[in-house]
Amino acid sequence: MKILITGGAGFIGSNFVRYLLNKYPDYEIVNLDKLTYSGNPENLRDAENNPNYRFIRGDICDKKTVDGIVSDGVGTILNFAAESHVDRSILGPESFIKTDIYGTYTLLEATRRHNLKKYIQISTDEVYGSVEEGSFKETDPLNPSSPYAASKASADLLCLSYFTTYKLPVIITRSSNNYGPYQFPEKLIPLFITNALENKSLPLYGDGLNVRDWLYVLDNCQAIDLILHKGRIGEIYNVGADNERTNIEITKAILKILEKSEDLIKRVKDRPGHDRRYSLDSTKIRELGWRPEYNFEKALRKTVDWYRNNESWWRKLKVKAEEFFKKQYGELE
Ligand SMILES: NC(=O)c1ccc[n+]([C@@H]2O[C@H](COP(=O)([O-])OP(=O)(O)OC[C@H]3O[C@@H](n4cnc5c(N)ncnc54)[C@H](O)[C@@H]3O)[C@@H](O)[C@H]2O)c1
User: Fold this and answer.
1) pTM of this structure
2) Which of 13, 57, 218, 316 could share a disulfide with 7, CB 3.0–4.6 Å?
3) Which one is the CATH code of 2-178+216-239: 3.40.50.10190, 3.40.50.720, 3.30.390.10, 3.30.1330.10?
C-alpha cells in the first residue's frame, strides 16, 4: 500500500508517519510538505533512512507536484497539511484560504483524476464553533468563528461535495486539541511548558476559563489508523477523549509538574472571537472500536518530560514563535 501523507513534517503528521512506519513496515509512505514555519524535517530524522519512506518538499496547492506523486502508484491520501494556528489566521488569513481550501481542492482533484481508493481529510472540532452545554455530533451544523476554523470548515464541505457529486471515497476526521511531542511551541501546551522551563511568563488569554477537550497525539494516530482501515466512505468521525479542561487548569497542571510558581501566569487580552468551549460526541468512532489509551495526567507529564529532554529541538523554534507573539500581543516582560 502506497500512501501520500501531506503535512507530515508538522506535529500530528510526523507522529502519524512514525506510527505507520512502525506498525506497517510494508507500507510505502510519501510525505509531501512545504516546510512552512511549522514544518520541520527534524521531526522525522529517525525515518530518513527507512527505504519505505520518502520526503518531498512541495506545496499541496501545486497541481503538477501533486499529480506527479499521485500518478506513481499512490492509493490513498491523508491530508494533514494546513495552516493551523488560530492567532496567525486572525493576523493574516490569506495563507489559510490558500492552503486549507485551495490545497484541499487540489488533492481532491488528484484523487478524482487518478481514481484513488481513499482520501482522508484531517479536520478539527473548531469547525463546529463554541458550545456552552452538551457536545457536538457529526451531523451538527458548522459555525466556525476564526478564519482558521472557517477555512477548515470550507475544506470539509468541499470534501463532502466531492463525495456526493463524484462519489469520491472521502472520509473526514474531526479531532479535538492534540498535545504531545513535536508540537510547535506556539500552541498552548508546548508554549507554556517551554516558557516555564525558561522561567518566562505564561500568557493566559482573558479569564482562562475557555474549555478544550485534550487528546494525546498517539491516541489520535490510533483513531486515524482505524478510520484509514475501517472507516466508512462518506462519513465524518469526531475524535475526542473526554478530557475537558479549562486553560487555567492546564496552566496550573504544567506549573505543578515543573515545580514552578503560579506567579509566572500573566493574563493577556483575550483572542478576538475566542470560542468558549469545544466539546465532541465521539460515540461514532467508539462504536468503530476506538478508545483513548492515554490517561490525561500521565500523558501530560510524559509531554512535559519530552520537552524537558528535547531542548535542542524547541529552542530554535521558540525564536519564530516569540517573533509572532510579539507582533500580535507586544512584549511580555
Ligand atoms: N494540533 C491540533 O490540536 C489539531 C486538532 C485538530 C485538527 N488538527 C488538524 O490536523 C492537521 C495537522 O495539524 P498540526 O497541528 O500537525 O499542524 P502543524 O502546523 O504542526 O503542521 C502542518 C504541516 O503542514 C505543512 N504545510 C502547510 N502548508 C502547506 C502546503 N501548502 N503544502 C504542503 N505542506 C504544507 C507545514 O509545513 C507543516 O509541516 C491540520 O490539518 C489541523 O487543522 C490539528
Assistant:
1) 0.97
2) 13
3) 3.40.50.720
